[in-house]
Amino acid sequence: MKTVAIIPAAGSGARMGATMKKQFLLLGGKPLLAHTALNVASCKQIDAIILVAPGDELDNCQSEIVEKYKIDKVILVIEGGLTRNESVSIGFDNLPGGTDYVLVHDGARPFVTERMVNDVIALSQKYGAATVAIRVVDTLKKVKEGIIQSSMSRDDVVRIQTPQCFRRDVLQHGLATASRAGLVNTDESSIVERLGLDVHIAEGSETNIKITTYDDLKIAEALLGMYS
């Protein structure tokens, strides 16, 4: 069975306030997106990768990431849309023939592991849809206008991460439904969930962080030092 990874990395990185888009910021001397793509490409069950990048960075992505780091599994670098939904849909529309399963992984999560990828692929092959997630350890409160209203149980709450994997027809249905309804989602499990389908959970990791701020980048540098 053929599994293709879509890596959406078309965001502006506005929350970092950087002059350079965050996916091209250096982490240990290497672009953040290169770390992510290399780790996904190293997974044996991934047959091909589609990188979805900003339109003005396509050449840079091809030369400074795909070619420079010899990521042969990348079969296409393509311009993304204005939203995540649009970017993933563009990647989906360009899947190669014979694709059975689609794995989606944030370009800004450089510490994805083969274990995570294998786990969500296995669950999606069995059930149709899967994501990694981690348990919540902090106390949760409902807040209104800066004032605590009530406490929430942590027992049935998780923090969703990527990678997420779906049978091709399941993700296709979810993306089409979200597009028709004008829905904007921060991940693909949300749109599949809205179809009334079960999304099964594999164990994520506290180290599988998403780089959103400069503080995240500092944490990532520390993690990289630990791994190396």
UniProtKB/TrEMBL annotation:
Keyword check for Lyase, yes or no: no
User: What pathway, per the record?
Assistant: Isoprenoid biosynthesis; isopentenyl diphosphate biosynthesis via DXP pathway; isopentenyl diphosphate from 1-deoxy-D-xylulose 5-phosphate: step 2/6
Q: Could you tell me which Pfam families the record lists for this protein?
A: IspD
Q: Which UniProt keywords apply?
A: Isoprene biosynthesis, Nucleotidyltransferase, Transferase
**Which InterPro entries does this entry report, sorted A to Z?**
IspD, IspD/TarI, IspD/TarI_cytidylyltransf_bact, ISPD_synthase_CS, Nucleotide-diphossugar_trans
Q: Which Gene3D superfamilies match?
A: Spore Coat Polysaccharide Biosynthesis Protein SpsA, Chain A
What EC number(s) does the entry state?
2.7.7.60
Is this entry keyworded Nucleotidyltransferase?
yes
Its recorded name reads 2-C-methyl-D-erythritol 4-phosphate cytidylyltransferase
